[in-house]
Amino acid sequence: MKKRNNINQQRAGLSRREFLIRSGALGVAGVSLPALLAACGGGSSGGGNSLFFDNWPLYIDPSEDGAVGTVERFNAASGVEMTYTEAYNDNDEYFAKIQPLLGAGQRIEPDLIAPTFWMAGRLISLGWVDKLPLGQMSNLGNLEDNYVKPPWDPTGEFSLPWQAGTAGIAYNIDVTGREIKSTADLFDPAFKGKIGMLTEMRDTMGLILMSQGVDIATISSFDQAAASFDLLAKAKADGQIRAFTGNDYIDDLVSGNYAACVGWSGDVLQLGKDSPNIRFVVPEEGGTLWADVMVMPKGTENVDAVAKWLDFVYDPVEAAQITAYVQYFSPVKGVREEVAKIDPELAENPLVFPDTATASRLKSWANLSEDVDAQFADAFSGITGA
User: Fold this and answer.
1) What is the CA radius of gyration of the chain?
2) Which of 320, 318, 332, 310 is nearest to 80 (CA)?
3) How far is CA 101 from its chain centroid?
């Protein structure tokens, strides 16, 4: 699971100090959710012209410094009364909160949530989400082709991507003394005790599996991954790996405690200007492509409002405002051209708009069955100690 509560502190190009200042000024989008869940007929999801979207923290452009944020622009343009909250901090934690009601066939309060793709696939498999009102969208054609009928949503009826990104290798060239190109470099004895791995199983294991020639887009059994888990376990036992972390790998990377680590593209984008010695590369063998996707929990009543929101954020002009702020991959066609009008330098950044060669090396995980997913999770936690 992405530790997105930590990641998003870096997404907007903020220092930790700036994050603390800004998070206190986010207004409605930054408040805690008093009661995540509501039984049937309760909460703010009643009525025909309201919308409740529970998303990850700092994952949308706010109204500040004279600029009008996406939520406020949508409210004005649609007449919908939108409640936007940031209580989605961890996939497994959120699943544990919604399971009692959705598992019992009852509604939860949010009309939309944005789980990471693999969790979305789990919710779809369980039958806990409704089909999105795609037929009411005029901007559906703006969905980037690689997200049409993705592995986690084979029919393409239940989800639409919110934002996406990639995991690869972040490294401190002052420590490595050379460019890093391959996942194999993480296992170079020259870097013993200076390698970091992520606690996000799919990103850490995804890179290792691809380096071992395993296609994560089609993997379906633990046996296919056993050798890669053995490789990771040996590296841990031999002291090659300094630590398994969430987003706090950034501190060790900048300080030089890490020579290299599995990391996320957006983090390095934020670090680049202040720390030019920090680099990011999609390994030659490939990097993982993840997406946080919008799904509509079972029993949602405000379907028309959901349709209006989806259509609004899939307008490239509006989507560009979000991309310029969060600086991750947009799933909307035409966003690069619109971002160029806002920030020409950002529009040319390959960590936000990957070139063809880079994009061809990015892969998303297959939608694992419940049993296989549990095997992967148990094996990984057995190595990390989590």
Assistant:
1) 20
2) 310
3) 25
Q: Which two tokens stand for residue 185?
A: 């470099």
User: End-to-end alpha-carbon separation of the chain, Å?
Assistant: 12
CB 202 within 8 Å of CB 118: yes
Indicate the DSSP class of residue 52.
E
Q: Residue-wise over 255-272: b if at least 16 C-beta within 10 A, else e?
A: eebbbbbbbbbbbbbbbb
Contact yes or no for 111/306 (Cβ under 8 A): yes
The pLDDT score that the predictor gives to residue 369 is 87
- Same domain, residue pair 100 and 213: no
369 shares a domain with 306: no
Q: Are 264 and 155 in contact (CB under 8 A)?
A: no
Q: Tell me the CA distances in angstroms from 349 to 131, 147, 270, 338, one per residue in order.
A: 35, 21, 12, 14
pLDDT of res. 29:
35
- Supply the CATH number for residue 148's domain: 3.40.190.10
Q: What is the pLDDT of residue 48?
A: 61
DSSP code for 164: E
Same domain, 86 and 111: yes
- Cβ atoms of residues 145 and 282 within 8 Å: no
| pTM as predicted | 0.76
Look-up of token digits 């920090």: 278
On whether both 348 and 245 belong to a single domain, the answer is no
Strands 160-172 and 287-294 come out as antiparallel
> What residues make up the domain containing 294?
4-164+290-352
Per-residue confidence (pLDDT) for residue 328, from 0 to 100: 87
Q: What is the mean pLDDT of each run of 10 residues along the chain (386 residues)?
A: 38 32 32 35 51 92 93 97 91 91 96 95 95 98 93 94 95 97 97 95 96 95 98 98 88 95 83 85 94 96 97 98 92 98 93 88 88 95 89
Residues 6+ apart with CB under 8 A from 188: none
> Computed from CA positions of residues 320, 326, 328, 332, in that sequence, does the dihedral angle turn out positive or negative?
negative
Q: How many domains does the chain have?
A: 2
Residue 18 sits in the same domain as residue 121 = yes
Return the closest-CA partner of residue 323 out of 84, 139, 70: 70
Decide if 357 is inside a domain.
no
Residue 9, pLDDT score: 38
